[in-house]
Write a structure and sequence with these properties.
With about 160 residues, this protein is an alpha/beta fold. The chain is built from five helices and eight strands.
């Protein structure tokens, strides 16, 4: 691990599976190293995968197989800025279609319970439009969506 700051994510024995999925799904992502436990520990045995170093869209992460009892929640999420509807759809469908679940306003959870915001750049521009009425229309359109529909956001922004 060479980064001074690394995001540590807790898994119940599935850190390698999750890291492998992220590496296959997101650009600039990889499984960097797998470390096995040098001895028995509360959630596993010697030789089990203890930690996995991985990168998600350039962000260094450490998956810790810490066992049951600690779950992910919406207080932490990865926000992924997308450039177009095709990228938005691909990432959303990969997460939700692999055992995840939809939520509101571009949020979804992967099968491990980790939250993702699949956020088109167009949406961020629209809800920060200098015209308050245009921003409100785009914001209100977003509030009715699960996966973000860029065409609908642009139409709402225009009025």
């Amino acid at each position: 691990m060479t980064s001074k700051n690394t995001i540590c994510l807790w898994y119940n024995g599935t850190a390698l599976e999750a890291a492998t999925f992220y590496a296959a799904t997101f650009p600039d992502s990889a499984v960097d190293a797998v470390h096995r436990a040098p001895g028995d520990y509360p959630a596993g045995k010697q030789g089990d995968v203890l930690t996995v170093e991985f990168t998600v869209i350039g962000i260094p992460c450490l998956g810790l197989n810490g066992g049951p009892g600690v779950t992910h929640n919406e207080a932490f999420s990865f926000q992924v800025a997308t450039d177009d509807q095709a990228e938005t759809d691909r990432l959303w469908n990969a997460i939700v279609g692999s055992g995840g679940q939809e939520s509101a306003c571009g949020w979804c959870k992967d099968k491990w319970g980790l939250s993702w915001q699949i956020t088109p750049r167009v949406l961020m521009a629209a809800i920060s439009d200098p015209d308050p009425a245009a921003a409100k229309r785009a914001f209100n359109a977003m509030m009715d969506m699960t996966k973000i529909d860029i065409a609908m956001i642009e139409a709402a922004r225009r009025g």
